[in-house]
Amino acid sequence: MMDFFSRPGVWLLVPVAPRIQAPEVTCGVLQSLLPVRVLLIAIMVGTMMTLVLIWPQQAVANALLLEDRPNGQYADGYLSVLRDPTGQLSFAEVRERAFNPLPQQASFGFTDDAIWLRLEVRVAQPPSDSAVSHWWLEVALPSLDDVRFFAPTAAGDYSEIRTGEHRLFAERPLAHRLFLFPFQIAGQITDSLTDQIPGHIPGQLTDQLTDQPIGAETQTLYLRVQTLDSLAVPIRLWSTDALKVRLANEQLWLGISYGLILGMLIYNAFLWGALRDALYGYYLAASVTALLVILELNGHAYQYLWPENLWLANNQHALVPAVHFIALTLWTRRFLDTPRHAPRFDLALRAILVGALVMLALVALDAYQLANQLAFWLGISMTLLILLVSIRILWRGYRPARLFLLAQSIPLLGALVTLARALGLVPDSLWAEHAFQMGISAEFMLFSLALAQRIDLLRREKQEAQQRSETDLLTGLLNRAGLFQGVNRLLDRGTPSALLLVDLDHFKPVNDQLGHEAGDLVLKKVAERLRTLVRAEGDLVARIGGDEFVLVLRGLHECQDAGVVASKLLASLIEPIATPWGDARIGASIGITLAAESDPDLTLDRLLRQADHAMYQAKRAGRNCWYCGQASATTAESLITNNVTTG
């Protein structure tokens, strides 16, 4: 008590209240009240007593009561910490040092210190020798370089297990992506403990741990951790049964996540092989490196890809992100076309590329810690940059950026869920623990959809551009290029067709007398009347010159049949065309040629020459009539009709 009140500044907490005169109370009830100062002193004394009671509890962390929970038990709030800046303290020296309580999570950022953690665990009642209490301590961060676990033995000393990424994967007590250490509260520590968990290496534990019973109700465990990466030690404790269930469920979740990404990879690899589109290649590179990032973060890369390569194990957390940054940046620039849509943002993306190359150079120069720190800042910068550039390009109306932006947002949402789980804001579950990874999986599914949408958009843009290149801007009919494509398709199929070349008569006076605007309007009206004569899909209508039009009618192989259509056209064109500048009166001379035979040498140019010759025959015959001649090896009988005349 006196020790507490002797602390500097404690008395500053006690307010000095002025003496307050108690008011008089009438009606003969009470003549005076207790002074307010007495009340304040009573409150302060109660507060001081409360502080005195809780003060000793803050000096030493409580022992964690072990319980068989399905989601394990986190050690946050039960740990004590000792920092060793030299990294030279022995375990015996550490046990003699004073540890400080660690009320928050065991996260220390980038540090060269060796971090010692102490954890006291206990059970509700000391188990008997026949009821052995098997427990596991999990360190849920696979990127730690040097991890040492110390557990008590029956002889009163401690056994030590060493693992981490500076050691071969085969040296781990349990062949698992994370660090799992067994310990017991009572009974014997034998291989029977780890035989219950898949992945156990027989003989690993019995070489290091005692086989004598331990009957203490409370035990003190120690961890020593040192790493060049950001140092955090998320500790969770499990019973053997709960751990088995957890590992099985986790395997299912991770399998689904990896399966989704692999499915997208295989699907888009087939598309890339079929389409030979470079964009799919960039997507595949980004997807493969993203999968490597997930494998590296989860510890599966070291477990399955390079378990015997210590150099890769020690440098993977800089190498893999650097390669992914390069692939993701190239994919983003290509997909969003940032050089064209957002040139300033594109410069920033190029800076990310340079930063990733610098990371690779630092690893090559054995400056891993600097490369790893650069990866942290580049990752944050790149995520924000891609979000901003996606919003910018979407704002400008580029629709594929919508899915791209959504895809980028989902991993961020997953990261927030994982963070909320760590802070206790959402219930602990496998989906919450692996929300970020599931977000990455969903991201690349959406990337795949965005890629398909972009490919479809490019295809439609190409079709529209081709259509514009094949369309007459004034009338909306096909131009010569469009007519060429359409006729070639008909000729390739050997479809009998009739080609009608329509040359307007008396059109020049319309331009001279009523003006070019009136002339343009007349051409549009002529185009509308020509469209009414198209009988079925596949017939073609085109404008190939100033006042020259072409109709290609499928299925007609006789001059008389084509002449019926030509007569209707002449009757339609002879009707006056109303314009704001006056009525326009025109006519037409029509030349007809037939493509009734399968002729490999038959071309549009040949058909047009034949039709042009027939059209001039119609003009010589007096205009406002049609003339038919076949475009075949032999010239058929020509037929001239002049039954439509001007009024």
Automatic annotation (TrEMBL):
Residues 495-631 form the GGDEF domain. PROSITE patterns: GGDEF (PS50887). It comes from the Bacteria. Keywords: Membrane, Transmembrane, Transmembrane helix. The chain crosses the membrane at residues 38-56, 252-272, 279-298, 348-368, 374-391, 403-423, 435-452. CDD domains: GGDEF (cd01949). Gene3D superfamilies: 2.60.40.2380, 3.30.70.270. InterPro entries: 7TMR_DISM_rcpt_extracell_dom1, 7TMR_DISM_rcpt_extracell_dom2, DGC-Regulatory_Protein, GGDEF_dom, Nucleotide_cyclase, Rev_trsase/Diguanyl_cyclase. NCBIfam families: GGDEF. PANTHER family: DIGUANYLATE CYCLASE DGCT-RELATED, GGDEF DOMAIN-CONTAINING PROTEIN. This is Diguanylate cyclase (GGDEF) domain-containing protein.
